[in-house]
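User: For my dataset I need records formatted as: sequence, then structure tokens, nothing else. Please produce one.
Assistant:
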Amino acid sequence: MRLIDLRSDTVTRPTPAMRRAMFEAEVGDDV
């Protein structure tokens, strides 16, 4: 298994699919 260190990930750019998922994600207080 490859280890991916994301602690200081400043070069990775979200793909269009990732951006769409973030845009469509429900946000709010789920109480």
